[in-house]
Amino acid sequence: MHTQKSFKLLLWSFLAFASLQNHIGLCRGEKCSGISNAPTLTQTQVELGNPPKYKAQVQNKCPMCPIINIHLECGNFSQALVNPRFLKVISSNDCVVNSGLPLAPLQNFSFNYSHNKYAMHLTTWSFQCE
Question: 127 near 104, Cβ under 8 Å?
Answer without folding.
Answer: no
